[in-house]
Amino acid sequence: MSDKAAAKQRFINVFDGLVEELKEILISYKMPQEAIDWFVRNLDYNTPGGKLNRGLSVVDTYAILNNTTADKLSDEEYKKVAILGWAIELLQAYFLVADDMMDQSKTRRGQPCWYLVEGVNNIAINDSFMLEGAIYVLLKKHFRQDSYYVDLLDLFHEVTFQTELGQLLDLVTADEEVVDLDKFSLAKHSFIVIFKTAYYSFYLPVALSMYMSGISSEEDLKQVRGILIPLGEYFQIQDDYLDCFGTPEQIGKIGTDIKDNKCSWVVNQALLHASPEQRKLLDENYGKKDDVSEQKCKDLFNEMGISKIYHEYEESIVAKLKEQIEQIDESRGLKKEVLYAFLAKVYKRSK
Amino acid sequence: MSDKAAAKQRFINVFDGLVEELKEILISYKMPQEAIDWFVRNLDYNTPGGKLNRGLSVVDTYAILNNTTADKLSDEEYKKVAILGWAIELLQAYFLVADDMMDQSKTRRGQPCWYLVEGVNNIAINDSFMLEGAIYVLLKKHFRQDSYYVDLLDLFHEVTFQTELGQLLDLVTADEEVVDLDKFSLAKHSFIVIFKTAYYSFYLPVALSMYMSGISSEEDLKQVRGILIPLGEYFQIQDDYLDCFGTPEQIGKIGTDIKDNKCSWVVNQALLHASPEQRKLLDENYGKKDDVSEQKCKDLFNEMGISKIYHEYEESIVAKLKEQIEQIDESRGLKKEVLYAFLAKVYKRSK
Ligand SMILES: [Mg+2]
Ligand SMILES: [Mg+2]
Ligand SMILES: [Mg+2]
Ligand SMILES: [Mg+2]
Ligand SMILES: [Mg+2]
Ligand SMILES: [Mg+2]
């Protein structure tokens, strides 16, 4: 097993223990067996199975902040920080179960979406609630005695609400049925991706490990937020770019943003620079479910040089982020290395 | 305006202010206008409009614990305790928006269910999340400086999770499509109603006002829980009884539990005492959508004397609760009157 696979396995082993703990709590409530089985299946089906980048990054950040590497952490310390990682994965599971219902998606992580599993249907709504509920059960059990417990709760609440705000704006902006490109704008795109993705995927893991490391002054949290939020935005812009311009081998799937009428960075850039004729082509073809319309959009994006705009954006944002990281004040224990590690993960995705 | 109407109006006025506060927070995030408007409409459509019993009982309990009446509270103190009341109403709104989707209900409080409102549909899932999210935004804004802030958070998390557990068991027990009376039992009924209703409707309002009053030792919380949980169970048993045996004038609606295949106290009592022939009648008619089947079930319930069993249960539980209330230790500031007030509200409903 490679080091990376071993690290992932150790993280997954913690999850199996957490499912047992949650099960025990339901047993202590004398919850009937069929409901316990259902909850365990909900947890197992929806929480692991992804790349676990967010959860693992809590552990890795914590190790950097404490001048060590994850593999050197004792089992006890490892478990505690890994619980914070799994709390993010549970938060993501909560969002994804619901998002798939709202988007009427069919598959997630190579299996049917939870709400499409036989016998589940709309029970998936309550199941998503319970995935979120599990976060607070676990935080209380493992962190109630810590001085930063209330900060963890405030942070989860804040980031959860921000993600819901991003989701709301996404939902009212990009109706799959009614295509109206007037609703799109780069400003809205920026708001959606920052709120829907950047806070919980980039800021949350670092902030959690900072609290557990005792490096959590408002100045330090502000320093990392100032870098991780634009980095998260860059990550999503890259995701949008690759959906349209990446090969299936590169992205591991076939992009569908054009057909899905997504408020993507690519279409927003095109809208910004489009002549009246080009705009007309987009109005007539963007968000249509057929291959011909999709290809017309792609041809237009190529003709407009969106790829070049993307690469210029990428070089410029990466340079800017590096400059910002260099200016970080490490005097209270924060480490530039934390931010460089995040930047490297995003930058190398497309290289 | 009657005293009761004036009290309700003062409570509702606080809500209007809270919606403004929540709006301001979205504005401070620079959230686009259409999403702000959507959130405000979500709050207004789903939160007030009910009887507000749960929210108002926080205020009333707080007044009793502080040797005063609600109308004598200063505007500042009133607003603070009313926020806790609205936090319960938001929690209920969160559950009801989702419950109506899961039950495919058509109306709620005399208007179409939120998910059936033009343009809403599945966005209602994220809207329910945001109703819950609003609780923590408001608690942080108004209680962050208080010593019991973390207790409020723990309490909301615990009760939320308990309610979700009750909802889960309800969903896996009473499938509207597949009628299987073997899934029902009085023990399951008791678990469902305690978890789905009693914790958030009875224990939560009292516990919140106890924290704000500084009367919140674990002994005192345990004392009230020991009375409010069986009282909440009695309330729901009464609700089930009235759904079947109450007149439309009495209950303000036409009961549908039989047709809806509800795991009601009434059918569970019947199952407990049914002869093989009576059981056969239930298997063949309970949960069917037609009036004839429904009437057959009602006739059987009458023949089996379920009404008499209910009245015996009611007299016995009321006597027991009174006895328990009499034994309450008031030495740390808790008041029997709090519990008598709750009991009176439930007992008089059917008298
Ligand atoms: Mg989606
Ligand atoms: Mg979506
Ligand atoms: Mg994408
Ligand atoms: Mg319902
Ligand atoms: Mg229901
Ligand atoms: Mg009822």
The fraction of residues assigned to DSSP E strands of chain A is under 5%
Low-confidence stretches of chain A: none
Oligomer: homodimer
Shape of chain A: globular
Describe this structure in words.
The structure is a homodimer of 351-residue chains. Chain A has 14 helices and 2 strands; from the N terminus they run H-H-H-H-E-E-H-H-H-H-H-H-H-H-H-H. By secondary structure, the first copy, chain A, is mainly α. Chain A folds into 2 domains: 1-145, Farnesyl Diphosphate Synthase; 153-351, Farnesyl Diphosphate Synthase, CATH 1.10.600.10. The two termini of chain A are 25 Å apart. Bound molecules: magnesium ion (MG) (6 copies). Residues 239-240, 243 of chain A line the site of one magnesium ion.
Can you give me a brief rundown of this structure?
Chain A has 14 helices and two strands. Chain A is mainly alpha-helical and 351 residues long.
Give me the secondary-structure topology.
The structure is a homodimer of 351-residue chains.
Chain A: H1 3-28, H2 33-46, H3 53-65, H4 75-103, E1 107-108, E2 111-112, H5 123-143, H6 149-173, H7 186-213, H8 218-245, H9 248-251, H10 265-273, H11 276-285, H12 291-303, H13 306-326, H14 336-349
Antiparallel strand pairs in A: 1-2
Helix pairs in contact in A: 1-2, 1-4, 3-4, 3-7, 4-5, 4-6, 4-7, 6-7, 7-8, 8-13, 8-14, 11-12, 13-14
Bound molecules: magnesium ion (6 copies).
